[in-house]
Write a structure and sequence with these properties.
The protein has a 9-stranded mixed sheet, with helices on one face. Strands 7, 8, 9, 11, 12, 14, 15, 16 and 17 form a 9-stranded mixed sheet that branches. Strands 10-13 form a two-stranded antiparallel sheet. It contains 8 helices and 20 strands. By secondary structure, it is an alpha/beta fold.
Length: 361
């Protein structure tokens, strides 16, 4: 009885291994060529920061040179998904379709309320927060419960002072969380804070504001500080008697520019070049906080998301530095910061399309 394989030419069996090896070699060559091409492509040297108009809340989007993203807070609920749509508009400008890390600084409605609407439309890699709600108020309990419901079954990480948020291309360290704070920042030598001695006492704060997560973002020589709604007593605990933060290039004015925050001891110690105040038309942007930031030694510009209509002309920035000035037909303009690892950066007012450059110092 003859076996079918006996009729196959011997050369077929001899050539098959050689053919397989050739195909593998071609595949390896293709992969190596792709890798070489990817390595040859110049990496972006831009960190993008968007201060999004959520009408006196917070939504700050950071996109690293690698394309990885961090969203700090998600604005208000309701308003037909207004704040989620504004965050998505910034994402589109940055060329991203997902949020890798969504950090909720604390559980007040203007910071966490928009999260359920946003994540119903936008993929999120992980959710970061300071843990349990610490405020004894019905509205904050409701918002915390809504937050937990929205992220149920999703990846969540409770962060603490000293933790880092892994974002390729930038270094992000947690300075404060859940009422505690860091003593030292890696690579920075704490120095005595000369402004502490003259600082007035600040009252204890039992609200979620005092539990805010605060972060320091470093991209080469560029440094950005966001302390959420951290209030005065906690600012002093962080920055006195020694300042562990050092100086920063860009300061997101704490607590939307409320006079419950922005102690002179911390503002003068961090010595910002530029500040952005994410105030609303009739929320925050208080004259006292505005003046403290404005008078900080070395400050070049104070940008505002809105004219503070409860204040006066002397305590509002010039109109070119305001995204949504009084009398504009519609709100929603935002600031776009483009930073280089050299320390140079720019701020664009999307209402006017005008960009101001801040050269490396």
């Amino acid at each position: 009885m003859l076996i079918a394989s006996q009729f196959r030419p011997q050369s077929t069996f001899r050539s098959f291994p050689a053919l397989l090896l050739s195909l593998c070699a071609l595949a390896l060559l293709f992969t190596a060529t792709q890798a070489a091409s990817a390595q040859a492509a110049p990496a972006s040297d831009q960190l993008l920061i968007y201060s999004i108009d959520v009408e006196g809340g917070q939504a700050t989007l950071l996109v690293s040179p690698s394309g990885a993203s961090l969203l700090v807070d998600s604005g208000w609920p309701g308003n037909n998904g207004r704040d989620a749509a504004r965050i998505q508009a910034a994402m589109k400008d940055a060329g991203i379709k997902r949020i890798d890390h969504l950090l909720t600084t604390h559980y007040h409605r203007d910071h966490v309320g928009g999260l359920p609407q946003l994540i119903s439309k936008t993929p999120v890699g992980e959710f970061l927060d300071h843990g349990l709600n610490r405020e004894d108020s019905s509205v904050t309990r409701q918002d915390f419960a809504a937050y937990l419901k929205a992220i149920q079954g999703k990846r969540r990480r409770i962060i603490h002072p000293g933790d880092s948020i892994s974002i390729p291309g930038i270094a992000t360290i947690v300075l404060a969380a859940d009422g505690k704070h860091i003593a030292t920042v890696p690579g920075i030598q704490p120095v005595p804070n000369a402004w502490c001695a003259a600082e007035h006492p600040w009252p204890d704060d039992p609200t979620e504001n005092a539990r805010s997560v605060g972060i320091l973002v470093t991209f080469g020589k560029f440094r950005f500080l966001d302390l959420g709604d951290l209030t005065g007593a906690k600012e002093l605990a962080l920055s006195c008697p020694n300042n562990p933060i050092g100086t920063v290039d860009l300061y997101l004015v704490t607590h939307h520019g409320m006079n419950l925050s922005n102690s002179r001891a911390i503002v003068d110690a961090i010595h910002p070049r530029v500040a952005i105040m994410n105030n609303g038309t009739h929320k925050a942007g208080s004259p006292e906080a505005w003046q403290t930031v404005h008078d900080s030694t070395g400050l070049e510009d104070l940008w505002q998301l809105h004219t503070a209509e409860g204040s006066d002309d002397a305590h509002n920035s010039p109109e070119p530095l305001i995204a949504n000035p009084k009398g504009t037909a519609a709100d929603g303009a935002y600031f776009k910061v483009v930073a280089s690892s050299s320390g140079a950066f720019s701020v664009t007012n999307t209402r006017t399309g005008q960009t101001k450059e801040y050269t490396r110092k």
